[in-house]
Amino acid sequence: MKKLTALILIIFGAHVLYAQNDAITAEGKITDARTGKGIKANIRYSSIPTGSIFGRFNDSTFSFSIFGTAKYQITAAAEGYNPRTVIVDPKDIDANKKVIRDIMLTSKGQTIILNHLIFSQGKSVIDPKSYPELDEVVQMMKENTRIEIQLEGHTDNVGSPKANLELSQSRVDAVKKYLVEKGIAKGRIQTKAFGGSQPLANEMTPEARAKNRRVEMRILKD
């Protein structure tokens, strides 16, 4: 009996050690997108897609352990700011067994630039590298079914203004189509095209032109 108990303890101990060695830490900080200062926020996290593992913090930072291959969604909300949801993927683990994901919040009324949204040059075809960022928008809208957004398309100001306006419209239409195919109701998504009329930078350099080619998201209702 003692040998059996010892064997069970050894096996159990090995399992705990294995679990501890397999643990990944997801961590990050919540900051103001404009100033970079920390923001105390209501932070909620849950496993995707079941939500069976979840937790919350009320702080400007978060840190929690994740196991296996499940992804987690993390939503940060603070008074006076637009809520933001990000997705943590264990595949993004670093050498320290951590997945670092900071969340930058924009003030209410300001737009959120989808920085990782990529299109083929002169076209409205979404590059697959953009899907993770768009999936975060999907998760945010699924978590809070009251949220309504407006997608705003911008191009650089080189070429025909009419063609640029049409291109910016077709790009936001493509983004809307992606979100709808992921389960978001059409009525929750408006679109607006600006062409090259609202540049972020006026320099005629490749870097400035790339910065001006963008899609922004405005939260109309939350």
From TrEMBL:
Keyword Signal attributed: yes
Chief place of localization: membrane
Pfam families tied to this protein: OmpA (PF00691)
Protein origin, superkingdom: Bacteria
Keywords on record: Cell outer membrane, Membrane, Signal
Signal peptide stretch: 1-19
SUPFAM superfamilies: OmpA-like
Boundaries of every OmpA-like domain copy: 106-222
InterPro entries noted in UniProt: Bact_OuterMem_StrucFunc (IPR050330), OMP_bac (IPR006664), OmpA-like (IPR006665), OmpA-like_sf (IPR036737)
CDD domains xref list: OmpA_C-like
Subcellular location: Cell outer membrane
Protein name per UniProt: OmpA family protein
